[in-house]
Amino acid sequence: MSFNDILGQEAAKQLLQNAMRRKAISHAYLFSGPTGAGQLEMAVMFAKALFCTEESDDACGKCLECRKVDHGNHPDLTMISPDGASIKIDQIRELQRIFSYRSQQNHPKVYIIEHADKMTVQAANSLLKFLEEPQLPAVAILIAENGQALLPTIQSRVQKVPFRALDSAMMEQVLIAEEYPAALVRCAVHLASGLEGCRAILNENWFAEIRNVMLQLGKESVNRSGMAMITASQKVFRTGLSEHLDMLFSLFHLWFKDMINVQYGRQDCLVFIDQAEFITGHASARSTSQWVSCMDLAAECQKKLRYNVNGQLCLEQLLLGMGEAPA
Question: Does residue 327 register a pLDDT over 50?
Fold first, then answer.
């Protein structure tokens, strides 16, 4: 595997490979951006390229150094992730201990810290000292969804490498090639920012079930009253799908957006591609402003759910609002 095998993030690849060509490797990098955008994959690939005996701007994938990285047992690559909810000072102290021993090869050691924005204050201060005074040649790669959450003093000592959410059409193409159902893929790529996140959703049996429930309720909302819909929604709580109400609200948001897209002639933007006929036939049942109000209601109910308001009450509020909205 090489840099070319990593999906998207061309700017990040170019920055790192240019540094390797110029032999101007920074002592520390911050890979920041939405979770699932490929930061960890890129970090490991960068380490692999630094270790590679071919000494180019990419990893050959064949030499002993590359194979060690692929097998997860390279002695000069250290990975750190949160111990529970945070990265603790003992983990940074252990890192410093490991990096007190020299590399056996002619390359720097590399450490990758996942969720670096979850370091405790003590851990962050300890890392800061390590960044400023490394005992041996080392390259740090900090991965954070929100780089601004790191100590300003750490931010000032790293080279920032921004990552963007992967393009949904690009992810869709990859996932369909992996033989995931196209209709489910189209939803997943609008709900997760990276391939791994999409795969995690698609591999869950409940995802197809909660989508089907949303479709049933969404269709019934066009012609039925709010109270009748509440009765129909009881299956959510009878079948154990109530654990996934957050996802249900997200799907409703996409459903309402599809209605608006049809009103504006943007059928090519539909998420629920297998429901195109129904959506096209019923998008005019409400005005654009009414569909926008439904989107707002779904977002409001989702917010209440995340603030621990009773899930059944949140769902009933949404269904009442949908069913009783004037046509």
Answer: no
